[in-house]
Amino acid sequence: MHLIVISFDGLSTKDFKYISRLENFKSVLKDASYCTDVESVYPTLTYPAHVSIVTGKYPKNHGVVNNTLLQPNRQSPDWYWHRKYIKGETFYDLAIKDGKTVSALLWPVTAKSKIQYNVPEIFANRPYQNQIIVSLLNGSIKYQYKLNKMFGHLRKGLKQPYLDNFTHQSFLYTLKNIKPDISLVHYTDLDSMRHYNGFDSIEALDALKRHDRRLGEIIRTLKELNIYEESTLILLGDHSSMDESKVVYLNVYLKEKGFIKVNKKGKVTSYDAIAKSCDGSTYIYMKDKSNKQLKDRLFKDLCDFNKHNNCFDDIYTSKEAIRLGADSNCTFMIEATEDYYFLDDLDVPAIKEISLDEVGNVPHITKATHGYLPSKEGYGTVFIARGKRIKKGNIIDKMRLIDEGPTIAKLLGYELKEADGQVINDFLDI
Q1: pLDDT (0 to 100) of residue 57
Q2: Is beta strand 312-317 parallel, antiparallel or unpaired with respect to 332-336?
Q3: Which CATH number fits the domain that encloses residue 406?
Q4: What is the DSSP letter of 78?
Q5: What is the DSSP letter of 352?
Q6: Peptide bond between residue 43 and the one before it cis (omega within 30 degrees of 0)
Q7: How many domains does the chain have?
Q8: Is the overall model pTM greater than 0.85, yes or no?
Q9: Which CATH number does the domain housing residue 363 bear?
Q10: Residues 220 and 254 in one domain
Q11: Is residue 327 a contact partner of residue 61, using CB atoms and an 8 Å limit?
Q12: How far apart are CA 430 and CA 428, in angstroms?
């Protein structure tokens, strides 16, 4: 059996009706079992979600609680790129221990992992770094060198759809020449188009069409290799997204209230409390969570800020954030009101209307984003399974992203013993 897990970043419950009419998605769905409303994890970000997919755990338990690390004075913080950040086992770890061959192309949080054929999702985040060298040193050197030599011309930095074109041709090559037991591939075309053009944009629809063509080429390749019927194809998303037009820079307010100290150059020198954005939500971290007097004052100030600006849907305590699966180290977690999202800069107004001229030109300024509470109506994602050991035509109304890891593990003959999710036996024909 060949297992192929394809992640279409940003694929939403709201996309299902449209993709079900596209030629290649339609052909897969004909023989598949699926769920069109998968509840993601909190925060609904790419890295926490992808780690939940492979571990079956909530972010609070697998350790990847955000896309990026808390690094207050870095304009571009480092991401949770490396496998070392994941607590516990993934289903691909179990497969590798069992002697299986695994390939991963731009699958998040796999840098420096034991995956044998690995192109990790990581970028050069220092002025002195070179992108190709950074990628090579964090993944499979010979494999990546060969792919770069053959397909590197397709890329234009991190721009889409060029990056996915590179990923896709590399994936087809891998299927044809390596035939891994397990393949993980992560396409970000759709998510990028939504960020910079809006959820319902023509550009987003075009990205879905490109994904359908890519899916068709994968299917044709598997058929040419005479392994299509012996393969299991899993198509999934990680989160949805929502349009927004206003940014909340909460650290500006925390600085004004004395919780953050900066020097003359505007660099953070110390803090009692600081916000760490998750886009549609934000963590609030205190240096000393046991300081009840300071904590009470912080909560009151946050409530006052919202009273005047009406930009929070809710302020969750640490206990409530843990119950929602988020970082247990936070003091508070704040959910943005619709049309708002959070960023961490200190040299701007506390609330700012987005100018369309800034979108795509100013870092992190977008037209649509995610990170919001996963239980919002219509904010789910999709899980589709077809092929070997998968039942045909079983459709379930709802499931959770954390159920995917245990289900895939059982499909492979393994068990993720520490998973928070459960096996969806309705999908499996074992």
Answers
A1: 98
A2: antiparallel
A3: 3.40.720.10
A4: P
A5: E
A6: yes
A7: 2
A8: yes
A9: 3.30.1360
A10: no
A11: no
A12: 6
- Its domain, for residue 164, covers 2-239+376-427
For 7, the token pair is 């992640």
Phi, then psi, of 384 in degrees rounded to 5 = -130, 130
**Which residues of the chain, if any, have pLDDT below 50?**
none
- The pLDDT, as a whole number, for residue 360 is 84
Looking at residue 128, its amino acid is Y
Which of 382, 423, 386, 384 lies closest to 402, judged by CA? 423
C-alpha neighbours within 13 Å on the C-beta side of residue 66: 22
Distance CA 404, CA 425 (A): 11
Q: Which long-range contacts (CB under 8 A, 24 or more apart) does 412-416 make?
A: 412/3, 412/91, 412/94, 412/95, 412/100, 412/182, 414/91, 414/94, 414/95, 414/98, 416/55, 416/56, 416/89, 416/90, 416/91, 416/94
Query: What does 16-30 look like in DSSP terms, one character per residue?
Result: HHHHTTSHHHHHHHH
DSSP per-residue codes, 168-190: HHHHHHHHHHT--SEEEEEE-HH
Q: How far is residue 101's CA from residue 406's CA, in Å, rounded to a whole number?
A: 19
Q: Write out pLDDT tens, residues 215-225.
A: 999 999 999 99
- Cβ neighbors of 307 (< 8 A, separation 6 or more) are none
pLDDT score recorded for residue 357:
86
What pLDDT shows up at residue 127? 87
- The predicted pLDDT at position 4 comes to 98
- Chain Cα centroid distance, residue 324: 17
